[in-house]
Amino acid sequence: MTKTASTRKPVGLRLRFVQAWVDDDGRAHHYFRRAGFKRVRLPGLVGSDEFIEAYRAALASAPEPIGGARARAGSVSAAIASYFASSSFKRLGTDTQAVRRAVLEVFRREHGDKPIRPMPRKFVAAYLEAMQPSTAKNYLKALRAVAQHGVAEGMLDDDPTLGIKLGKMNGDGRHTWTEDELAQFEAHHPIGSRERLAYTLGICTGQRRGDVTRMGRQHIRGDNLAVTQQKTGRPLVLPIHAELRAVLDLVPATQMTFLLTLRGTPFTDHAFSDWFGKACDAAGLPSCCTFHGLRKAVCRRLAEAGCTVHEIAAISGHATLKEIERYTKAADQVRLARAAMARTAMAKKGAA
């Protein structure tokens, strides 16, 4: 049966920018429609992993650049637009795509009219040198991805980012929550609050922000949570800790996704970070306490419990073991120091 506008029946949804209708055959159709953005079809059932993944990706996408279609061939702007349309960019996780877009749109505004082919390595190095190391790291990754795409597409003869080394970042990156800080958050946000739910999902699974906000009943497999990490694509089966089980039991049975906004919609990544930051502020915690710091606290706890590097990676899903090794070395140092002091005490007692 031919579908017509007159036979479309609106479906009541609480998701922003979602247009929905049911056709004459009783099939529901959903599209993400937002002014200035590309129209995206949302597949699967509402609330399913497939649907939420597509919805989150559409929310995280950047608006279509004004005049993008008129970008001069061979320019930096054209190269970036080509990279955004590439399969290598589309394979990235939602979080990574959002960061890459933000970085490259800044670079395009500043240098989009320049030709891409003769871009010298000195220019890229000087551009990055003016930034903080942590910021420069994101820019280098994004520019290198565009350059490699440009080489593959014949826009560049070679990669101008090759050989560029960044200065070392001070400290250990994001702050790892201490036991006192964890206890302070728990004391302020009781079980049953959304804040405590978000916190418990983080501290009992060790997963990243984007993975935690996607978790729902569809991921429960008996006594485990079966999740696939957005960033790495790695599937994980995580035992449900008794503390997490007690918190999840309070989530309404009709609610598929565990964490929702007050409007009943899934969190976007940046909205979740802002909201959780306010929850930390309300608990009187320092600004260095972020949701990612809970992931690091999980690794620290596991290391202090004597877990091996590979045991910790089985929970965290880290693609490389370098960061985890730092936690285990620190925990081993503490244990060895305590053992050494205990032996000293025993030797002194024996001598007496």
What's the quick description here?
By secondary structure, the protein is of the alpha+beta class. It has helices spanning 49-60, 76-84, 87-90, 94-111, 121-129, 133-152, 179-188, 194-205, 209-212, 242-248, 269-282, 291-304, 309-316, 322-351, and strands spanning 9-10, 18-22, 28-32, 40-41, 220-221, 224-228, 235-239. Mean pLDDT is 85; it is low at 1-13.
Secondary-structure blueprint of this entry?
Elements: E1 9-10, E2 18-22, E3 28-32, E4 40-41, H1 49-60, H2 76-84, H3 87-90, H4 94-111, H5 121-129, H6 133-152, H7 179-188, H8 194-205, H9 209-212, E5 220-221, E6 224-228, E7 235-239, H10 242-248, H11 269-282, H12 291-304, H13 309-316, H14 322-351
Antiparallel strand pairs: 1-2, 2-3, 3-4, 5-6, 6-7
Helix pairs in contact: 2-4, 2-6, 4-6, 8-10, 8-12, 12-13, 12-14
What does the model show?
- The protein is an alpha+beta fold.
- The protein has 3 domains: 5-60, no CATH class; 71-152; 179-334, Orthogonal Bundle (hpI Integrase, Chain A).
- It contains 14 helices and 7 strands.
- It has helices spanning 49-60, 76-84, 87-90, 94-111, 121-129, 133-152, 179-188, 194-205, 209-212, 242-248, 269-282, 291-304, 309-316, 322-351, and strands at 9-10, 18-22, 28-32, 40-41, 220-221, 224-228, 235-239.
- The strands form 2 sheets. Strands 1-2-3-4 form a 4-stranded antiparallel sheet, with helices on one face. It has a 3-stranded antiparallel sheet with strand order 5-6-7, with no helix packed on it.
- The N and C termini lie far apart (97 Å).
